[in-house]
Specification:
CATH architecture of the largest domain: Alpha-Beta Complex
Order of helices and strands: HEEHEHHEHEHEHEEHEEEEHEH
CATH class of the largest domain: Alpha Beta
Number of strands: 13
Radius of gyration: 19 Å
CATH superfamily of the largest domain: DHBP synthase
Number of domains: 2
CATH topology of the largest domain: DHBP synthase
Helix content: 25-40%
Largest sheet: 9 strands, mixed
Bound molecules: threonylcarbamoyladenylate, magnesium ion
Length: 313
């Protein structure tokens, strides 16, 4: 615990000096900087090689801090009470008086905000006088980081400090809901859409791609381990890694599985770590068995489908 406290203070010191630190959250690791500082936020984009027009999520300790920057509404309050802190991000209108850097929002009048549950991140946010802008701590288009070593593998010595909070317990990014107009889901994630629908007592529209997709090649490449992926495969090729949802008795050397018995929470937690492992084990391509498109299975399929756009690159 003492060690954690000194590490949190070290992270604070670097952040106070307008620099970036990788931070643990329960979803995935974030690449964090002072959301009120143009200089600090610009460093995130540079390190991540992220396009300037892709806005960042800003992380707050609690609702009181949020109210300085954003307008809230009744749907937000319902969801906040039930699911925050946790794996859900809200898109809200910015207040005119907000101090959020325009580089974090790409000059938009809205802001994506989240309240992380991870203990170290909560403690860090509490100590700071500003919220933290933090995209996932991975290189743009690649698989997100779910532990210290993943961040180290991606950024090496380019990052001054990684706050080690162990392995991410959710293992996939937050679910994003826009509450600016009619509520709609912008990204599937670690919180099931049906739970959100139950809380708001209404069916939600899904708007998962900013451009209307007329051919699969138009879909943005994302979450890619850097090798071609084939989906819904019954029989893999020789020399190809094969990803299963559930462990089998007759596992071969090239077989990887996401869960022991098909539990989707366990599977999602293992998804990015397994994709990274397959790449590290030097496989040049990956086949995935069909995964039922239900509950969190939808999030897994969403990520694998986007990752498979590597093929069309
Ligand atoms: O779990 C998570 O959400 C992680 C952890 C670190 O909190 N963060 C994360 O950030 O996944 P990132 O930058 O990888 O994804 C943020 C997504 C992007 O797709 C971005 O386009 C969208 O949020 N976004 C940000 N601001 C937005 C806004 N004002 N309106 C709509 N979408 C927005
Ligand atoms: Mg990301």
């Amino acid at each position: 615990m003492k060690n954690n406290l000194s590490n949190i203070k070290k992270a604070k010191n670097i952040l106070d000096h307008q620099d970036c630190v990788a931070v643990p959250t329960e979803t995935v690791y974030g690449l964090a900087a002072n959301a009120y500082s143009d200089k600090a936020v610009k460093k995130i984009f540079k390190l991540k090689k992220r396009p300037q027009n892709n806005p960042l999520i800003v992380h707050y300790h609690n609702i009181d801090d949020l109210k300085r920057d954003c307008e809230i509404n009744s749907d937000f309050l319902k969801l906040y009470k039930k699911f925050s802190p946790g794996p859900i991000t809200y898109v809200l209108n910015l207040k005119k008086t907000s101090k959020i850097s325009k580089f974090a929002t790409n000059n938009k009048s809205t802001l994506a905000v989240r309240f992380p549950k991870h203990n170290l991140m909560k403690k860090l946010l509490k100590l700071l006088k500003y919220p933290l802008a933090a995209p996932s701590a991975n290189l743009s288009t690649k698989v997100s980081s779910v532990c210290f070593q993943d961040v180290k593998d991606d950024f090496g010595n380019k990052l001054k400090f990684i706050l080690d909070g162990g392995r991410a317990s959710v293992g996939v990014e937050s679910t994003i809901i826009s509450l600016v107009n009619k509520p709609q889901i912008l990204r599937l994630g670690g919180l099931e859409v049906s739970s959100i629908e139950n809380c708001l007592n209404k069916k939600l529209r899904l708007k998962l791609n900013s451009k209307k997709i007329s051919s699969p090649g138009q879909m943005k490449l994302h979450y890619s381990p850097g090798i071609p992926i084939r989906l819904n495969i019954k029989k893999p090729n020789k020399n190809e890694a094969y990803l299963l949802l559930k462990k089998r008795n007759n596992l071969k050397d090239n077989y990887y599985y996401l869960s022991n018995k098909g539990n989707l929470k366990e599977a999602i937690k293992n998804l990015y770590r397994t994709l990274r492992k397959i790449k590290k084990d030097n496989f040049k391509s990956l086949a995935v068995e069909r995964i039922k498109n239900q509950g969190l299975g939808k999030t897994i399929n969403d990520r694998l489908l986007r990752a498979s756009k590597f093929n069309a690159k």
